[in-house]
Every structure is written in structure tokens, then in C-alpha cells.
Design a protein that fits this description.
By secondary structure, the protein is of the alpha/beta class. It has 22 helices and 18 strands. The longest helix is centred in the middle third of the chain and has 28 residues.
Length: 547
């Protein structure tokens, strides 16, 4: 059963301009008591204005875990570290854990490994690291808090001891342009093996925050700082609103003593065995659902009715077992103009079960050819009406979709297609391909946009496990294609994509801005600014300075 967007919970939390994340608890397969989100609620009720800063630590706060760990693991898997480097790195980390060396010693050791490396290559490495590991670690709850601050006109910044190469891709995704972080020294585009002092750690983060306040007229006494670690106690004490997120034991004890509000997120990080079990059952339920449809096929001799039964059963069971609940706005548009071409933004592997629950019957789809080769699954999807295409071969893809025109015209089936062509790393909308629009035009049926707001909460790209969440879906009115032509198709694609962007609270400008390097600067010395060494500027900072 769907909940509508007009329910009291949704109405109380939603404000234009950003997506509200509602995390649900599922126990024994039963929903659903919304998990309280005191930090988000506080922001929604806070004073607006650009004089207020929302400062965020990175590791453990914006993302689960540590980006440095992901970086080391990736380098090890690529065999880009020698045995000696591995042994030395392990020794340094152990010494840091024992308290024998501080963060400065840890960074100095890391800088030595960087000596002689071209910065450009490390920028590219950071982007690749983001796509493979970091993007799926972003807490959706933190994303919601950031969006809420931006909607209030607050200045959002990241202040982290990590480097720009770890942070920048995530910052672009979140639309954050202000970054204060630790830095390696660079000369002529090459790492020297030294660090830029002071580092953005401990008191260095206070210096960074005060620089930011001086540059933008911020009132730190009215500002927020979100962190997971007691290492940030100096900045937590400096701001007016310290807000621990996922705090370690020491910070939790300090927060309890001082009455600081604490919040923990379970949407990312190490999944529980329950999450794994739910995911396996949900994935396997596709086979079970189609098996349950076989008796209907045998009795009615109708493959179509059997597939309809199986598809609805799969959608209901898979969403229930994973703890996914749908809040659907304007559900009536799902049924108003069938047959049609449903187009949806593809955020997650959970989209399959979400669409099965929404559309339920008389539907076909398009999938990449690689799925056809998956044992059992490929055959089931083919039996269910999926057409597999080679995305690398445009002409082949067009020929493969020709039967879909017949399925629409002759069989009255609706076709479901993701015009982005693949899952996106984040909720940001990707470019649209034209295939779905050509199909609708040739078949003479309308386009019905299905806007999925936050399926990444369930399972972001590259994540196997699906977790409980409430997913918002908006079904837009049917788009008439009767007057479309090949000459005007690009314009119509832009129009429909614009509908998605507006419904998601995104803009084309946001997408362009996300592609730009984030602005960053190492922390300058507060004691002797004139005598401080000239900080090395990253490529991102150089581009930002040039405008």
C-alpha cells in the first residue's frame, strides 16, 4: 500500500528545493516507525541567512568510514605499492594508533610516498576512487542536512584533515565549493614529498573556520559544525552549535557531558546479516514470483496474465522484504494513458522492484545485453518482455527496439525505459538518450515520466546490499507526442528532462557546477601570516583563481 505525499509526516518535513530523507525501521518484515532526525529538524526550523555557516568534517561524517583506507586498498589492489611501502605504511599507521606519532607524522610519512608524482595523475586517481568506492559511502541523511542548510541560505563548507583529492569529487556532487583541508607541497605540478603547514587538524581546523568566517562575514557563534571524532573538539567548542554525527566513544562521552545533541546513521557502513538476508531473498524472489505465475499460465494459456501476476507479486514481495516503502505523488497518472512509454531516472538496482510495484501489469522493458547472459535471470526477464540491447552499438539498439513498437501498438503493452541508459552514482540526474522518445513517437503513445527521488537510499550504485528506506516517487502527467517529429526530438528530450530536474529540485546550472573543480586552500598560519610558507595551490585552486 502506498502512502501519498500529502501525509502529515511528509508535509511536516518537506520544503521546496531539497529532498527530505525519511529513514524507516523494519523489524521482522514489518514497518515502520520513522527514525527521528533531530539535526535535520533543527536546520528546518533554524534562522536563515548567509551569515550562518554549516561546517562539515568529511570522513565518518559525510561518508561512512575513511577515504584514506579506500585509497590504500585501491593502491594495494592495483599493485602500485611495493612490499617496502606496504610495510612502512603499516608501521606508521600502527605507531599513530598507539599514540607514538601524531597526525603530522602520519601525513609526513604519506607525503614521502608522493614525492616525484605528478599532481594531475592523483587528481584522476581521486576521481576514479570516488566512482568506485566513495560515492556509495555518502550518508543520505547527511546529504539531506546539507541540502536543508543550502535551502536556508547558510554557507556550507567542508573542513577536513583529508586532502583535496579525497574530498573534491564528493564536494562537487554535493554542490559544496568551499573546502579547507590538509595539503601536500607541490612545485611545478609535482609533489615534493613535504606537507603544507599548518595541517587542517585540531587547532588547524579552528584556523580554517576563522579564515572562512573572515572571508565571508560568518558568525561562528551562530554556526554549525558536524563531526564524528573527538579529534575535532577544538572546532566543536568554537562554534555555537556543535553537532556530533556518528560520534566515536570519546566524542559521545563529551557530548553527553555537555548536552550536545547526537545522531547516528545506519544507512551506510557495514551491513548487518539481516540486510544481507533481505537482499538475497528479494533478489531471489524474482524467480519465485515467476514460478508462482506458471499455474496461471497453465490454467489460462495466457503468458501475459501469468507475467502480470508474477510482476505484481515480485514488486510487492521484494519491497516488503527489504523494508522499502513508497510515497507516491499523483499515482493516477500511472493508469491514465496506457499504453505509453514510462521513462524513469535510474538511481539504483532497487528501481526494478519499485517499478514492478508501481506499474504492475502489461509492461515491457529494455535492458543491457549483458543481463541476458546471467543464468536464470536473463531468461526470466526475456520471458517477461524485456528487450536486450547493445548500448555500444546505436544502430543495433534501434533495430532491437523495433519489436517494442509492435508490443505497444498490437499488444497494448507499456514500455519502461531509463533514458539515462545506466544507473547514476548519485541522485543527480544524468544526460538523457533519445531512444525512449523515438519509441513513443513511432508508436504514437504518450510519455509518462516517473521521477524517483531517493532510491539511492536503498542501494546506491556499486552496492550489493539493499537497506530499508522510504522512497519518494512523483508521477508526472502524460506528455503528448502526437506532434513530435525527428527534427524536434532533441527539444522534446530537453523539455522532459527539465521536468525531471524541476521535480527533483535540481537545475542544469547545478549539474554544470558539479562538474567544476571545488575551491580549496590550505590553512594559513594565524600566528605569523607574513612569515608563513607560501602554500602550494592545487590544480583546482588554480582554476578557481583564473575564473
Amino acid at each position: 500500500m502506498f502512502r501519498t505525499a500529502g501525509c502529515p509526516t511528509f508535509a511536516a518535513l518537506h520544503e521546496p528545493g531539497f529532498a527530505v530523507i525519511v529513514v524507516a525501521i523494519t523489524v521482522g518484515g514489518e514497518m515502520r516507525v520513522p527514525r527521528p532526525q533531530p539535526h535535520l529538524d533543527e536546520v528546518l526550523n533554524s534562522e536563515p541567512g548567509p551569515h550562518i555557516a554549516a561546517l562539515f568534517d568529511f570522513d565518518g561524517t559525510i561518508i561512512s568510514g575513511y577515504s584514506a583506507t579506500a585509497m590504500l586498498r585501491e593502491k594495494f589492489q592495483r599493485r602500485e605499492m611495493s612490499v617496502e611501502e606496504i610495510a612502512e605504511t603499516a608501521q606508521v599507521i600502527a605507531q599513530h594508533s598507539l599514540g607514538n606519532i601524531g597526525f603530522s607524522g602520519l601525513m609526513s610519512a604519506a607525503a614521502k610516498f608522493m614525492k616525484g608524482v605528478d599532481e594531475e595523475s592523483f587528481v584522476a586517481f581521486g576521481d576514479e576512487l570516488y566512482e568506485k568506492h566513495i560515492a556509495r559511502k555518502i550518508y543520505p541523511e547527511t546529504r539531506a542536512i546539507i541540502e536543508a542548510h543550502k535551502a536556508k541560505g547558510h554557507r556550507v563548507a567542508i573542513i577536513s584533515s583529508a586532502t583535496i583529492y579525497q574530498i573534491a569529487p564528493t564536494a562537487r556532487d554535493l554542490g559544496i565549493t568551499d573546502i579547507k583541508c590538509s595539503a601536500y607541497e607541490i612545485e611545478d605540478g609535482v609533489f615534493t614529498g613535504e606537507i603544507v603547514r599548518p595541517l587542517c587538524f585540531g587547532e588547524g581546523k579552528v584556523i580554517a573556520a576563522e579564515e572562512l568566517a573572515a572571508d565571508h562575514g560568518l558568525d561562528l557563534d551562530q554556526s554549525f559544525f558536524y563531526s564524528d571524532s573527538d579529534d575535532d573538539i577544538e572546532l566543536l567548542e568554537r562554534v555555537g552549535k556543535p553537532r556530533p554525527l556518528n560520534p566515536n566513544l570519546k566524542l559521545k562521552a563529551i557530548a553527553d557531558e555537555r548536552g550536545w545533541p547526537v545522531q547516528r546513521f545506519a544507512s551506510r557502513g557495514t551491513p548487518s546479516w539481516i540486510d544481507y538476508t533481505r537482499t538475497l531473498y528479494a533478489t531471489g524472489s524474482l524467480v519465485g514470483a515467476f514460478a508462482a505465475g506458471l499455474p496461471i499460465w497453465a490454467l489460462t494459456r495466457s503468458q501475459r496474465e501469468a507475467v502480470n501476476f508474477s510482476m505484481g507479486l515480485f514488486g510487492d514481495f521484494a519491497t516488503a522484504i527489504t523494508g522499502v516503502e513508497l510515497e507516491v505523488e499523483d499515482e493516477r497518472h500511472l493508469w491514465a494513458s496506457r499504453p505509453c512509454v514510462f521513462v524513469f531516472n535510474h538511481q539504483s538496482k532497487a528501481d526494478v522492484m519499485i517499478l514492478a510495484k508501481l506499474i504492475r501489469r502489461d509492461m515491457g522493458g529494455v535492458g543491457k545485453k549483458e543481463i541476458r547472459d546471467i543464468p536464470i535471470l536473463g531468461k526470466l526477464m526475456e520471458w517477461g518482455g524485456t528487450v536486450f540491447i547493445d548500448r555500444a552499438d546505436g544502430k543495433s539498439a534501434i533495430r532491437a527496439m523495433e519489436p517494442l513498437v509492435d508490443a505497444i501498438r498490437q499488444d497494448g503493452k507499456s514500455i519502461c525505459i531509463a533514458p539515462e541508459g545506466t544507473r547514476t552514482l548519485t541522485p543527480k540526474l544524468g544526460p538523457f538518450k533519445k531512444g525512449a522518445f523515438h519509441l513513443a513517437m513511432q508508436a504514437g503513445v504518450p510519455i509518462v515520466p516517473i521521477v524517483i527521488h531517493n532510491a539511492t537510499d536503498v542501494a546506491p550504485k556499486n552496492e550489493f546490499v539493499m537497506r530499508p528506506a522510504t522512497v519518494r516517487v512523483t508521477v508526472l502527467p502524460p506528455v503528448d507526442t502526437s506532434r513530435w517529429s525527428v527534427k524536434t526530438i532533441s527539444e522534446h528530450v530537453r523539455e522532459v528532462r527539465g521536468m525531471f530536474l524541476r521535480t527533483l529540485g535540481q537545475s542544469e546550472d547545478d549539474a554544470k557546477e558539479a562538474a567544476k573543480p571545488a575551491k580549496t586552500a590550505p590553512v594559513k598560519s594565524a600566528a605569523k601570516p607574513a612569515a608563513a610558507p607560501r602554500p602550494a595551490r592545487t590544480r583546482a585552486a588554480k582554476k578557481a583563481a583564473k575564473g
